[in-house]
């Protein structure tokens, strides 16, 4: 029996070694070629465990399932954003960047075996039900989340439109679990929303950075300039709202930045271990079109690159949102108003393994034009304004709160001990809301939007100062 296990074990080592070589991975920090010495002892241990499961687990498990679980475990234990994408997850990733997918409308991660809400997507079942960033989902219908992978939990939350699912939620400050029944629907995320707040002052909200975000931004700006209430006058001020925007496509973030910056201005740089990960991205068509035909920024209304801008951010502004905010802040093109952003300063590369599976791997950190890293730190607003006159509406989950988050290698105050990442405790939100309002999300760009009203006041004051 032992001889059979050893024989299968060595076959397993050969298979694993072949996979590593085919993927061009090395055991020695990536500097040597894939033919460098492989960790034979560790691979032997892997093969022993693999075969112990095959021979002795209480129920039969096929090879494909075991290998997929092994790959998933390797990636999920690196950082919060690396992941194995099975056929369903890979398809969902591709569809979501196009702005339409089925489900509840939640950006989620995993913590202590539970699904943790990063941000509800605006105008979705989750948003309307009052699900908040930081909520822990512990049960899906009657099934405990503990023991599920993130992919399995997400798959369970997805489903046919008009079908219900009951979430059991733990929320800080609540004495007992919150039980909410949500009805699934097709989630169509409208990337750009815009309106003329009053003559001369426009408002553009980006909910997510998708494939068509840059061209949709141009259309929204053109509509604002042609709005009848504006009487054909140029805009005197613009609010760019990135609150609760979880990010999206890098090239779209570059395109949005390029709409307001001088041509060829540095937008963001990335740095990693491979040559491909060391790049500088500028406000140029080559970097934001990504091979697509037709440059939408050629249709920008005149004056857009000179109009005073205030960018609104909060703890739900992440990744691509922070790239845009950081670029406009560093180039002194806009004032940033709101609260500290999420702090996701890493780049994920999708590497296909087959026609329908892939891995999402963190390959680099990104830096603002001045060289700042916002990883686990976020963008600090020029003008700090809480969500309400009485303080923050709730406590935000941030990158620094996630297990195994990358440290900020340029921030001396980053928590790091023996190479391990320490989870920082989020600061309590200021102010208290009564129970009725605590479960009600603020409607952005409404009369109740305190941060937007303060941004409008600041733009008007800006106009007065310019005249003086």
Automatic annotation (TrEMBL):
Top-level taxon of origin: Bacteria
Basic and acidic residues bias (residue ranges): 408-421
GO function term, MF aspect, one: serine-type endopeptidase activity
SMART domains found in the cross-reference section: PDZ, TSPc
EC number: 3.4.21.102
Classification via CDD domains: cpPDZ_CPP-like, Peptidase_S41_CPP
Domain PDZ span(s) in chain numbering: 90-158
GO cellular component: outer membrane-bounded periplasmic space
Pfam families tied to this protein: CtpB_N-like (PF22694), PDZ_2 (PF13180), Peptidase_S41 (PF03572)
Record keywords, A-Z: Hydrolase, Membrane, Protease, Serine protease, Transmembrane, Transmembrane helix
InterPro entries associated with the record: ClpP/crotonase-like_dom_sf, CtpA/B_N, PDZ, PDZ_sf, Peptidase_S41A, Tail-specific_protease
Region (Disordered): 408-438
GO biological process: proteolysis; signal transduction
Transmembrane annotation, as ranges: 7-25
Family that this chain belongs to: Belongs to the peptidase S41A family.
The name this protein goes by in its record: Carboxy-terminal-processing protease
Provenance organism: Georgfuchsia toluolica
Gene from which the chain derives: ctpA
